[in-house]
Structures are given as structure tokens and as C-alpha cells.
Amino acid sequence: MFSLTRNSLGIDIEKIEPNINISDFKEVLTSGESLKIASSEDTLGTFYEIWTIKEAGMKADGRGLSIPLDQIEIDLESLKIGITKWYYRNLVIDKDYKCHLVIDSPDFNVTVQKVKKEDLTGHKLLVY
User: If we measure between CA atoms, which residue out of 99, 83, 80 comes closest to residue 15?
Assistant: First the structure.
């Protein structure tokens, strides 16, 4: 990942596993999230959407897994962890993956560009 920001940010990428048992995650989802997943036409996709937003938020916050997942509140374009509001964007990288980026500012743009590993050989990526 290459970033041109000094803002706190987090990213999570998950491969969609078709055999995952979503009910195993019931305790870390809010009742609203569970209802959203159950009523979705794409329960698996909706689960991974919620999951990657939460994981990216925990990474951006910096406390990681010490944050109870069921206490992260997600709305249409932001999430709250405690009193801190974060903003997220969906990153489309592949049909078999879900990915979200979370940052502490509502004003940000994201560009996803696929590169080949060999194109990076000999180059240094700077993160600001």
C-alpha cells in the first residue's frame, strides 16, 4: 500500500470463503449487523463487507483486537469506535475478495491500481 497522507488509516483485505459459518461470528456482530446479513440477498458478501470495515477500523485506531468488535458502530459511510468517528471506502480489487480502507478524515480519495510484482523490483515505496 502506498499512502500520501499523514492521517491514521487502516486496511483489511479478506478472501471470500464460501464455506465460512457466519453464525460462528454472531457474538461479535451487533443485532443490526446480524439482521442486515440475514436479510441480504448476498449474505456472504454482506458479512465480509461488515467484517472488513471493522477490521480496517481496528487497525486504523491502533488498538487492534483489544477493541470489542460488537462495539464498533457502522453506518452508510462511517464507523464509530468509542467516541472517534472514522470514514471508510470499499476498494474493489477482485471478485473473490472484500477490501475496505478506513481513515480519520471524511475527505479522501482512493485509487486502486494493480501492479505486477516484477514492476516493483528495485523500487522503494515511500509511505508519508
Answer: 99
